């Protein structure tokens, strides 16, 4: 069981050593920006390392959006970050499912995802696998509630995309974590990565606020059970000062 953390992007391997992490996730560029990622200064070291690497795309990405000024740059950013992820030896690129606005039909967002991945598949695929991540809030989100996730997967699953299960997001979205792995796999057929986060808020809050494993509103044993069931690499995206303890706890329970 490979367990690690989302870390600072300047020296991910040093951050991994500090935490006892076997996996590192990081950004290649400003997570709130639209700029193309620049070559990572430690790309060769990361690619050669035994530490498993994952890249997270910027939060601004919204492939589902009907707005051309958002959707088209989002597509470009995903392909650019996938190329950057390949350079650092990443196993995949995490991309949030995105959303449409309250007056727009979610089916349009699903179709926008399908068009994107279908076209990329026809052109040889992404530079690394894209892992679509479930999200915490928004009534018109593509991957918040699992019924919406199922509609999305019916459209994109045949094109080889992966799935990243975030425990805080699922809990905040009102999805029970007991049996969540089995329910997710019934929809997607796979879990490629787990974002193992506790929640600062209550069940079905729609709020995306992460807590360390021992500090939130989710019982730590429930989180450990998700790890055991998923049998996939695990990344904690929790407050940095508690990440080493989070990793140690999950490894002891694995």
TrEMBL record:
SMART domains recorded: AP2Ec
Similarity-based family: Belongs to the AP endonuclease 2 family.
Keywords: DNA damage, DNA repair, Hydrolase, Metal-binding, Zinc
Needed co-factor(s): Zn(2+)
The protein's name in its UniProt record: Deoxyribonuclease-4
PROSITE patterns hit by this protein: AP_NUCLEASE_F2_2 (PS00730), AP_NUCLEASE_F2_4 (PS51432)
SUPFAM superfamilies, sorted: Xylose isomerase-like
Pfam families linked: AP_endonuc_2
Lineage, top ranks: Bacteria, Bacillati, Actinomycetota, Actinomycetes, Pseudonocardiales
Naturally occurring in which organism (per UniProt): Pseudonocardia oroxyli
A GO biological process held by the record: base-excision repair
């Amino acid at each position: 069981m490979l367990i690690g953390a989302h870390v600072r992007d300047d020296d991910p391997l040093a951050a991994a050593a500090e935490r006892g992490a076997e996996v590192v996730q990081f950004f290649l560029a400003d997570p709130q920006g639209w700029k193309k990622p620049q070559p990572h200064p430690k790309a060769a070291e990361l690619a050669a390392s035994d530490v498993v690497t994952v890249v997270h795309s910027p939060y601004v990405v919204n492939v589902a959006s009907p707005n051309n000024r958002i959707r088209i740059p989002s597509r470009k950013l995903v392909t650019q970050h996938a190329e950057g992820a390949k350079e650092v030896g990443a196993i995949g690129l995490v991309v949030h499912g995105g959303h449409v606005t309250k007056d727009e039909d979610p089916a349009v967002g699903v179709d926008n995802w399908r068009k994107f991945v279908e076209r990329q598949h026809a052109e040889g695929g992404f530079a690394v696998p894209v892992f679509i991540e479930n999200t915490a809030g928004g009534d018109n989100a593509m991957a918040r509630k699992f019924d919406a996730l199922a509609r999305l997967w019916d459209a994109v699953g045949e094109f080889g995309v992966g799935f990243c299960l975030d425990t805080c997001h699922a809990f905040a979205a009102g999805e029970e974590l007991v049996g969540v792995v089995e329910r997710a796999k019934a929809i997607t057929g796979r879990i490629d990565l787990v974002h193992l986060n506790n929640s600062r808020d209550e069940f079905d809050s729609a709020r995306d606020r992460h807590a360390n494993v021992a500090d939130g509103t989710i019982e730590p044993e429930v989180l450990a059970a998700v790890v055991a069931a998923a049998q996939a690499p695990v990344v904690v995206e929790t407050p940095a000062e508690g990440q080493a303890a989070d990793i140690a706890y999950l490894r002891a329970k694995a």
